[in-house]
Amino acid sequence: MAKKQFKAESKRLLDLMINSIYTHKEIFLREIISNASDACDKLCYQALTDDSVGMSRKDFKIEIKADKEQRILTVSDNGIGMDREDLENNLGVIASSGSYRFKQEVGDDAKDTDVIGQFGVGFYSAFMVADHITVVTKKYGADTAWMWQSAGADGYTITACERDSVGTDIIMHIKPDTDDEKYSEFLESWRLQELVRKYSDYIRFPIRMEVSKTRRKEGSPDDKPEYETYQEEETLNSMVPIWQRRKSSVKPEEYNKFYRDKFHDYADPQKVIAVSAEGAVTYKALLFIPGATPFDYYTKEYEKGLQLYSNGVLIMDKCADLLPEHFRFVRGVVDSPDLSLNISRELLQHDRQLKVIASNLEKKIKSELAKMLRDDREGYEKFWKNFGRQLKYGVVAEYGAHKDLLQDLLLFYSSTEKKPVTLAEYVSRMKEDQKYIYYAAGDSLEKIDRLPQTEGLRESGTEILYFTEEVDEFCAQILHTYQNKEFRSVLDQEIEEGAEKKAEEAAGAHKAAFDFVKETLGDQVKEVKASARLKSHPVCLTAGEGLSFEMEKYFQAVQP
Ligand code: ADP
Ligand code: MG
């Protein structure tokens, strides 16, 4: 039996496309500009082997024109253009991509181009903002130009027309505003500039537009200057992404400025990490460790993630999957041509490549921090002040799943060194007969200094780590050991043999005093006992069975 072909219900499909694939209308400009860039790329590629093209990379450009009165937005390019057949095949058939076929045809050489298109749906996104689109185009090598016209679902017409040079104009008749939906912004110069910078900043060809500027009127007096506005064509995009440049060719000041502009920070980053990877997945990444804690860092408002680009086109502003929680303070961008994008190019299809990238970046961040700790202690302590707490949270999270990765990056204040030290440093200084890594928890360094239970150890010159943050003690419990040395609270320090017995005897002799204290305090304490750990202090408080005071505080702090 002859197989029947599926017939796509084009009208409905187009409707679906227009109304449900994209979450943001504004994305249409990214799609139309990406197509223009692809068209330039294709002719550029042809020029490599065909001298008669007579153009090189620098000759290509994309132009945007907005006519507010006519409500027409035009995007023009001097790329490869389309003939009648191309128009039928590419714009007449939904989900047919000339760019995808181009990449298949040129095969391996596609690596040298930056062709973006692949799904054959981007063009139709323009119907989200335009009720009528006219395409005027002339293909390279053809004599005739063609006009394609459509008002969306009702179909399209193709007629012969005039166009002086090779290239394409996409002429969009912007919809009228309604009470619910506004479209006029897409005719505003500032808005178009904003969108180009947001989504298409790294398109490799100049995107040009006439913008109004103000200047001082010639001859106007100094004390009464007059100003006038004038129009000037400007390139809106920066074209070469800083992360595509070789690290050695970028000045530190350029990185800093890029960081401040892109992530709206007033402070320079503390560290810049540039990554260029080829292999299983090809990508470039530019990561920054902020120089200050963002004001909302430890709140729910703070959103982690890296900006994700594919071939210089923005796919996602904050891709959370690229960063583990414990490094959520890192900001930056990742650009990879290898991502499998979904049809709207707003999300990723499946995340195998993303997982590879994320895991490589995690290792890279860890090794850069370890390097800073080794080579720039002062810098590391500054970093620690800003984000150390995050690393401790990281140790505690997921029952210590990341503790091996993070434990060497931790710092705790030391009683003997009077400054933050690493666990490795502590262990290297341990006395021969010292079994434990001692810590004491309290609200502040001064309070811990005055803690009766630290006195004995301090007198004997034993180093104690001071835990002043609510997460510290939990962190030690999750680590449990470091280099086979167990953590132990000063409250549980071992006591000399026989000392306990002696204390009990003493308590027996002064039973009346103990009873008096217990009766006076009543329910506020569980029991009043003699302690074998005190030196010069008369009393100390200890927690009973279960949680320590500090742990209790931690749980109170993390409870929503
Ligand atoms: P995609 O870009 O994913 O292929 P689109 O719907 O955006 O899908 O575009 C469909 C096809 O139309 C493109 O593959 C390309 O062949 C053709 N096309 C669109 N815009 C232009 C243009 N400005 N110049 C030349 N060809 C274009
Ligand atoms: Mg496209």
Automatic annotation (TrEMBL):
<comment type="function">
    <text>Molecular chaperone. Has ATPase activity.</text>
</comment>
<feature type="domain" description="Histidine kinase/HSP90-like ATPase">
    <location>
        <begin position="24"/>
        <end position="178"/>
    </location>
</feature>
<dbReference type="InterPro" id="IPR003594">
    <property type="entry name" value="HATPase_dom"/>
</dbReference>
<feature type="region of interest" description="A; substrate-binding">
    <location>
        <begin position="1"/>
        <end position="345"/>
    </location>
</feature>
<keyword id="KW-0143">Chaperone</keyword>
<dbReference type="InterPro" id="IPR037196">
    <property type="entry name" value="HSP90_C"/>
</dbReference>
<dbReference type="Pfam" id="PF13589">
    <property type="entry name" value="HATPase_c_3"/>
</dbReference>
<keyword id="KW-0963">Cytoplasm</keyword>
<keyword id="KW-0547">Nucleotide-binding</keyword>
<dbReference type="InterPro" id="IPR020575">
    <property type="entry name" value="Hsp90_N"/>
</dbReference>
<keyword id="KW-0346">Stress response</keyword>
<protein>
    <recommendedName>
        <fullName>Chaperone protein HtpG</fullName>
    </recommendedName>
</protein>
<dbReference type="Pfam" id="PF00183">
    <property type="entry name" value="HSP90"/>
</dbReference>
<dbReference type="InterPro" id="IPR001404">
    <property type="entry name" value="Hsp90_fam"/>
</dbReference>
<comment type="subunit">
    <text>Homodimer.</text>
</comment>
<dbReference type="InterPro" id="IPR019805">
    <property type="entry name" value="Heat_shock_protein_90_CS"/>
</dbReference>
<comment type="similarity">
    <text>Belongs to the heat shock protein 90 family.</text>
</comment>
<dbReference type="InterPro" id="IPR020568">
    <property type="entry name" value="Ribosomal_Su5_D2-typ_SF"/>
</dbReference>
<dbReference type="InterPro" id="IPR036890">
    <property type="entry name" value="HATPase_C_sf"/>
</dbReference>
<keyword id="KW-0067">ATP-binding</keyword>
